[in-house]
Amino acid sequence: MRDISDCLELVSPYTVLSKYYDHYTISNKKYFAKWPKFLITNYQEIYNNLPTTLLDVACGTGKICSSIKKEYPDIEIDACDMSDAMIEHAAEKSKINYFKADMRTLSTQMKYDMAINTFDSVNYMLTIEDFIAMLASVSSCLVREGLYIFDNSTTLNSRENFDCFLNYEEKENYSLIHEAEFDSRDSLQISRFTIFQKESVHWKKSIEVHKQKIWKCNEVKEMID
Ligand SMILES: C[S@@+](CC[C@H](N)C(=O)[O-])C[C@H]1O[C@@H](n2cnc3c(N)ncnc32)[C@H](O)[C@@H]1O
Asked: Which residue ranges form the domains of the chain, and what is each CATH number?
């Protein structure tokens, strides 16, 4: 069997997918719509106040932080991601200050009241060391007693939705094949995106392989402690 990494068209995660990410995740629109209120209400319940400053870590195309900004214009928001391509698309959406940063080595001058990290981004932390580095670096960007909210995809989600998964989307200028499998032994969810983009008379093929570790709640809790 040919090793996927031998493919010449292999590009790093989100290099090409970033262009189609918002459209591809449109079925999660209802879920995305609930996030701003959910996140900010959680903060208000603890602190009886709105956060003054917020950092969106691994902000992707800025869907969540731009809708928080719309609903809560008084909150000062900065956002970062490791992918230049995702940040470029985010910057088209809103005038939030976006910057490039790896969530394992984040360091900011400003200290934020709240940090968020949504839609399975922490699952890109593949080792305990990476996960702990992410927790420590985000924590270093917070004020004392600041709040960090992140989600973590579950084994059930991987088993039910991403094992032997295949989805195909065809549009006029591109087609996207999403294959996924779940390796339950190592708790690894592997997604392979094969994207064909129309370029004048020919089609350009790109492949992205995304590896995500599915952490159990007790593992996350231990790493936090
Ligand atoms: C599934 S997307 C989620 C994006 C966004 N949070 C949302 O809710 O739509 C995962 C994001 O994590 C980012 N990411 C993965 N590893 C990262 C790292 N080490 N540091 C910063 N961002 C990372 C990717 O570039 C991508 O934008």
From this structure: 20-153 (3.40.50.150), 155-218 (2.20.25.110)
